[in-house]
C-alpha cells in the first residue's frame, strides 16, 4: 500500500477544490414538447473573392465538403466571374475572360472558364449564388491609362484593388446583353429547371468606392439592365441585390426606393423585379492588451440595422433576405494581429454565437431571413495555417467548418430552450461579450424525430477562462425508458487540426504521415454518452463545455 503524505493529500484536495471553483455552473433547460417556431438553415451560403480556386485541387475538395452539408441546398457566391484575364487566381482577384470584343467592337463570348467554375459547384452538390460582375476590360469606361487588373497583396493598402474593373460600362445595352447571353448559355448547359433554382445578383458593395466607381444612379442602371437581361432569358430567375457594404446607409435607402417606385432604366417600367434583398454585416476585431478582442457587437448591429431598413418598407418587408457576407471582419486575405483568431476555436465559437443571435434578430424584427453567407473558402498553395479567414488550409478543414457540420444536423423545428448563462441580446448589441461569457443553447427536432441541442461557450476576448459545467434538464420526452445520446464536440481538444499541427511543431512541409494525422484531427468524432434515463417524461445529464467550445447533443 502506498501512503500519501498528509501535506500532499491536502494540496491535491485544495487543487481539486480550486479547479471546481473555477468552473462556471450553467443550467440549460429544453422543453421537448413545446415548439418554438421555425429555425431556417440560414448557414448554407458561402463565398470568396477568388473564383478560380473552386477549380483547383484543394478548392474542389473543400467544395465537396460544403456540398455534403446539404446536397443541392448549399450556395456559393464569388466575385470576378466576368473579369477579364486568363483564369490565374491571385489575392482578391480572379478572371474568366467571358467577354471580349473584336477590333470593330463586336462582342465575343467565351464561357470556358465560367463553365469550369460552375461545373465544380454543381458536381459537388453546390449551386451558384451568381454574381454578375465585374466589368470586362473591353466594356469598362475607366479613363485611358487606368490599370485593369490590380496587383494587391496582403499588407498593401486595401483601396489599391480599385482599378478598371470597378467602372460602369461604356454601353449599358451591351452589359444587359452579356447578362442575357450568360443566362441563356447556363440554361442550355445546366437545364432550365436547374438554373431557376440559382440566386442572381448584380455586383458587390456598390456603396463602397473600392468596388464601384460610378454613381448611385449609374448602379441602379447597371442593376436594371442586368436583371432585365437575366429575366429575358429566364423569366422565373430568382433575382435580387444589391449586396451593399454594411446596412448600406443612404445608398441602400435610395436603392430600395428605386426597387419600389423608380423608373426602370432598361424597361421603362416602374421599379425593378426583386425576389430577395441583400446587404453585408461585419464585426471589428481589435488587438487589445496582447490578445484579440472580437467585435460581435458591431456585426450584430449591422444585421439589426439592415433588417430594420427592409422591415420599414411595407412593399418589401416580407421579401427573403440574404446577408450576402456575414463575418467577424471585412477582409479574408488581410493580415494583422487583430485577425489572429482565424485558425482555432475563437472563430468556431464566434460562428456559433453569432448565428444564434442573427436567428434571434430576424425573429425580433419579423423579417424573412433566408441566408447568412460566410465569406470564407480557402487560399490555394499558401503556407499552412497562414491566418487567412478560410474554412480549410491545404486541404485540411479548420475547426470553424465543423460548426457548419453541427448546424447541418439541426432540425428546422425549434424547441423551447433556455440557458442560465446566455447573454441577453440587447446586452450584446450594446457592449458585445466582455463581462461574463455567452454560454447559450438552441434545441430543435429533426425530421426523423431526434432532439438536437447545440450549445456554445463564447467570449469576445481570446484568452483562457474557466470551463462551463453544464446541467441539461429536459422535459416532454414522452415514454419512460433509456434513450441513446450522442455528442459531437468542437474545441481545443476535439475536431481541431490547428492544435494537432502545433503539437507537431508547426511544420510547413508536413510529410504524408503528418498530413494524415492532421486530416484525422480535423474530423468530428461522435461519442456515445451513457443512455439517458427518462422518467415521467423528464431526464437530466451533465457535461463540460470548455471556453470557446461548441457541442451538439443528439437524443434518439
From TrEMBL:
Keywords of this entry: Glycosidase, Hydrolase, Signal
Domain Glycosyl hydrolases family 39 N-terminal catalytic: 27-534
SUPFAM superfamilies membership: (Trans)glycosidases, Glycosyl hydrolase domain
A single MF term (Gene Ontology): hydrolase activity, hydrolyzing O-glycosyl compounds
Protein name, per record: Beta-xylosidase
InterPro entries in alphabetical order: GH, GH39_as, GH39_cat, Glyco_hydro_39, Glycosyl_Hydrolase_39
GO biological process, one term: carbohydrate metabolic process
Amino acid at each position: 500500500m502506498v501512503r500519501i503524505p498528509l501535506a500532499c493529500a491536502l494540496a491535491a484536495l485544495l487543487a481539486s477544490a480550486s479547479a471546481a471553483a473555477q468552473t462556471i455552473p450553467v443550467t440549460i433547460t429544453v422543453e421537448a414538447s413545446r415548439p418554438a417556431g421555425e429555425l431556417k438553415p440560414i448557414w448554407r451560403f458561402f463565398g470568396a473573392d477568388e473564383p478560380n480556386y473552386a477549380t483547383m485541387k484543394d478548392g474542389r475538395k473543400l467544395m465537396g465538403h460544403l456540398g455534403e452539408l446539404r446536397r443541392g441546398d448549399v450556395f456559393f457566391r464569388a466575385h470576378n466571374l466576368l473579369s477579364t484575364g486568363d483564369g490565374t487566381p491571385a489575392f482578391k482577384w480572379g478572371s474568366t475572360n467571358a467577354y471580349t470584343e473584336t477590333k470593330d467592337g463586336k462582342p465575343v463570348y467565351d464561357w470556358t472558364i465560367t463553365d469550369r467554375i460552375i461545373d465544380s459547384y454543381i458536381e459537388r452538390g453546390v449551386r451558384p449564388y451568381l454574381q454578375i460582375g465585374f466589368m470586362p476590360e473591353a466594356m469598362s469606361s475607366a479613363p485611358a491609362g487606368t490599370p485593369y487588373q490590380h496587383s494587391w497583396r496582403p499588407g498593401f493598402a486595401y483601396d489599391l484593388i480599385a482599378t478598371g474593373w470597378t467602372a460602369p460600362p461604356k454601353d449599358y445595352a451591351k452589359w444587359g446583353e452579356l447578362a442575357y447571353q450568360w443566362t441563356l448559355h447556363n440554361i442550355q448547359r445546366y437545364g432550365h429547371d436547374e438554373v431557376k433554382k440559382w440566386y442572381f445578383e448584380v455586383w458587390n458593395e456598390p456603396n463602397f468606392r473600392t468596388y464601384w466607381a460610378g454613381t448611385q444612379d449609374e448602379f441602379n442602371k447597371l442593376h436594371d439592365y442586368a436583371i432585365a437581361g437575366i429575366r429575358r432569358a429566364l423569366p422565373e430567375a430568382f433575382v435580387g441585390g444589391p449586396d451593399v457594404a454594411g446596412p448600406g446607409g443612404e445608398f441602400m435607402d435610395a436603392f430600395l426606393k428605386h426597387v419600389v417606385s423608380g423608373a426602370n432604366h432598361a424597361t421603362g417600367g416602374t421599379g425593378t423585379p426583386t425576389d430577395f434583398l441583400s446587404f453585408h454585416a461585419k464585426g471589428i476585431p481589435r488587438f487589445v492588451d496582447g490578445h484579440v478582442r472580437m467585435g460581435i457587437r458591431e456585426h450584430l448591429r449591422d444585421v439589426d440595422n439592415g433588417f430594420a431598413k427592409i422591415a420599414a418598407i411595407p412593399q418589401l418587408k416580407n421579401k427573403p433576405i440574404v446577408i450576402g457576407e456575414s463575418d467577424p471582419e471585412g477582409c479574408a486575405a488581410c493580415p494583422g494581429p487583430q485577425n489572429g483568431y482565424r485558425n482555432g476555436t475563437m472563430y468556431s465559437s464566434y460562428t456559433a454565437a453569432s448565428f444564434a443571435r442573427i436567428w434571434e434578430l430576424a425573429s425580433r424584427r419579423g423579417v424573412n431571413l433566408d441566408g447568412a453567407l460566410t465569406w470564407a473558402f480557402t487560399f490555394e498553395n499558401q503556407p499552412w495555417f497562414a491566418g487567412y479567414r478560410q474554412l480549410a488550409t491545404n486541404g485540411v478543414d479548420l475547426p470553424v467548418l465543423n460548426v457548419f457540420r453541427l448546424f447541418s444536423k439541426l432540425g428546422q423545428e425549434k424547441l423551447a430552450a433556455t440557458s442560465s448563462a446566455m447573454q441577453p441580446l440587447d446586452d450584446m448589441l450594446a457592449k458585445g461579450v466582455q463581462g461574463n461569457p455567452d454560454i447559450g443553447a438552441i434545441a430543435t427536432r429533426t425530421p426523423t424525430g431526434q432532439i438536437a441541442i447545440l450549445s456554445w461557450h463564447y467570449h469576445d476576448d481570446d484568452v483562457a477562462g474557466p470551463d462551463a459545467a453544464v446541467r441539461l434538464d429536459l422535459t416532454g420526452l414522452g415514454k419512460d425508458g433509456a434513450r441513446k445520446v450522442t455528442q459531437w464536440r468542437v474545441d481545443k481538444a476535439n475536431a481541431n487540426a490547428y492544435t494537432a499541427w502545433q503539437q507537431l511543431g508547426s511544420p510547413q512541409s508536413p510529410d504524408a504521415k503528418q498530413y494524415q494525422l492532421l486530416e484525422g484531427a480535423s474530423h468530428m468524432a461522435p461519442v456515445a454518452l451513457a443512455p439517458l434515463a427518462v422518467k415521467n417524461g423528464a431526464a437530466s445529464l451533465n457535461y463540460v463545455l470548455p471556453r470557446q467550445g461548441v457541442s451538439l447533443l443528439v437524443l434518439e
